[in-house]
Amino acid sequence: MKEIDWWWPVALADDALQGPVALKLFDQPVVLWRDAHGRPALLADQCPHRGARLSMGRLEGGALQCPYHGWRFDADGRCVAIPAQPGFTPPDSSRVQRLPLREAHGLLWADVGGAVHTPPELSGVAARRLIYGPFDTATSAPRAVENFLDTSHFAFVHEGWLGDLQHPEVPPYEVTHTADGRPVIERYLAWQPRASATAAGGDWVEYRYEVLNPYAALLTKRSQAGGPQDSYTIWACPTTAESCRLWFAQYTTDEQTPDQVLLDFQVTIFSQDQPVLESQRPKRLPLSGGEAMGAADRLSAAYRRYLKHCGITHGVC
Questions:
Q1: How confident is the model at residue 98 (pLDDT cuts 50, 70, 90)?
Q2: Do both 95 and 152 map to the same domain?
Q3: Residue 146 and residue 287 in one domain
Q4: Collapsing DSSP states into helix, strand and coil, what is residue 262?
Q5: N or C: which end of the chain has fewer CB within 10 A?
Q6: What does the H/E/C string look like for 28-59?
Q7: What is the domain range of residue 161?
Q8: Any bridge partners for residue 128, and if so which?
């Protein structure tokens, strides 16, 4: 599958991880933990001895100990001890599959099999960053990203916040593409009664959308009346073909508003999106027809074509 070409977010980079944490990535159980030096490790969640879930175990002497027979593994997946055979040096065949990790944008990213592309680069965003999540969501990652890119649901899903039923219209906009084929809207205007946590009233807001990779996107917006500029990313981790774990990051020039106020606003916005997202059928994003399209859906259509071009097969139909 072409999904192995990318790195995928799995956790916040500063998670303390007091013990092993069970996760899923592309339907595969994995376990995330930190060794005695604080180094994060992501291993297949299956002991090579008798197949028990390593995430049910505990940390012992800086190693991950299996709950069944106590076999211990280091951060590279190497078996370092078998309690039933003291002094025995386990062979390399006792190793657990390790997924490489790297840090970017405040998250830990995993390579599921020889990634070609690095995590997306960001430029021109504000220095102040807040990360919201994770949000475990019962829909496919492509569905969640398409919702983030959708230009015409504000008046109905976010009425009184990002949208107004008196202004449901979507002004004409043009979709362009980066040199590597990622869809972009350079300028899109939307009427919003409360465009941000600190907005005092309604105003026209200028948006810029950019798809960063198959399961990530960036939008930047600023009120025409001035005020702070905000950029938001969605980072989607495909846990299964029909579920995902999401993080949203905000980059803002607002240096005054407390973190909790900004957090409450973004959590409210996603709490409006989530039930609608989870109601969609099919949960996988259709790439070969089956859903009606209108002129306001140009970016959605471009995103679906981009996924097909990338050879994405997970979370789509």
A1: very high
A2: no
A3: yes
A4: helix
A5: N
A6: EEEEEEECCCCCEEEEECCCCCCCCCHHHCEE
A7: 128-310
A8: 252
Q: How many CA atoms lie within 13 A of 54 on its CB side?
A: 32
> Does residue 248 sit in the same domain as residue 286?
yes
43 located within any domain = yes
Tokens linked to 52: 């028990």
pLDDT, tens only, 221-259:
987 777 778 999 999 999 999 999 999 999 999 999 999
Q: Is residue 273 part of a domain?
A: yes
Note the pLDDT tens digit of each residue in 24-66. 999 999 999 999 999 999 999 999 999 999 999 999 999 999 9
For residue 189, the model assigns a pLDDT of 87
- CA 91 from chain centre, in angstroms, equals 37
Q: Helices in 39-197 by DSSP H: which ranges?
A: 141-149, 154-157
Domain count, the chain: 2
In this structure, what CATH number is given to the domain that contains residue 201? 3.90.380.10
> What does the pLDDT read at residue 199?
65
Cβ neighbours of residue 57 closer than 8 Å, sequence gap 6 or more: 20, 64, 65, 66, 67
- Report the C-alpha gap between 244 and 249 in whole angstroms: 16
In the sheet with 98-99, reading across from the earlier edge strand, the strands are 21-25, 28-34, 40-44, 98-99
